[in-house]
Specification:
Order of helices and strands: EHEHEHEHEHEEEEHHHEE
Strand content: 15-25%
Number of strands: 11
Helix content: 40-55%
Strand order of the largest sheet: 2-1-3-4-5
Radius of gyration: 20 Å
Number of helices: 8
Oligomer: single chain
Length: 223
């Protein structure tokens, strides 16, 4: 997991605590202390998830999210706020948020929600075909590989594995990352079964497109 986050929080001490914890858990965090700075960052960079406090200077979190949603930005967003009335909750979701976490909260809960939304945002994209290389494309929404005019539907685990490799293209994906995402809670992680799934995917897309980083994991060759 390497999730790029924007954290909008005007409490310097709290933002440092949140950012440090998330970065210790393989996230990349950009911090903004007011609404205008956050807006500038959103225009300049692409983030996987926005973590937004509401009561911040220059532009509150509700207005910020409403504005970028009106401009077509669909980056998943979680509000982190001390506001807790039903009116506040209603306004949060009307402005376009994906989740809402009331302060004070456990950092582990925040990380869990970040992971959940990150998986959902990537693994459930629709109408997207990705060029893998060598004339092979991957339809994320249907889990189909299209090659030479023919299509092959991947199994659930094969699809999630390939999506992980695509998301981290050019980077090593460890077995642990794959187990966390592709294996259900009741499944027993197995290196042997993982190798079998990788072998099956290679047969379909071409062996040369997935490299084996011995002792580390697997990598989809950079396009």
């Amino acid at each position: 997991m390497n999730i790029k986050l924007l954290l909008l929080e005007d409490d310097t001490q709290l933002s440092e605590i949140i950012a440090e914890y998330l970065e210790e858990n393989r996230c990349s965090v950009t911090v903004a202390s007011d609404g205008q700075e956050a807006m500038d960052r959103i225009y300049e960079e692409r983030f996987d998830i926005l973590l937004l406090d509401v009561k911040v200077p220059y532009m509150n979190g509700f207005d910020l999210l409403s504005k970028i949603r009106s401009e077509g930005n669909e980056t998943p967003a979680i509000f982190l706020t001390s506001l807790n009335s039903m009116d506040d909750l209603s306004r949060a979701f009307e402005s376009g948020c994906d989740d809402y976490l009331k302060k004070p909260f456990e950092l582990r809960e925040l990380l869990l929600r970040v992971k959940t939304i990150s998986k959902r945002a990537f693994f459930h994209k629709s109408d997207e075909k990705i060029d893998i290389g060598n004339g092979v494309s991957f339809d994320i929404s249907s889990s189909k590989i299209i090659k030479d005019g023919n299509s092959v539907t991947l199994s659930k685990k094969e699809s999630v594995i390939l999506k992980l490799l695509v998301k981290n293209r050019g980077k090593i994906v460890t077995p642990q990352m794959i187990f966390e995402n592709a294996w259900d809670y009741e499944d027993e992680p197995s290196e042997m079964s993982l190798r079998t799934y990788i072998k099956n995917i290679r047969k379909i897309i071409g062996k040369e497109l997935i490299e084996n980083a011995r002792g580390q994991g697997y990598m989809l060759v950079a396009g």
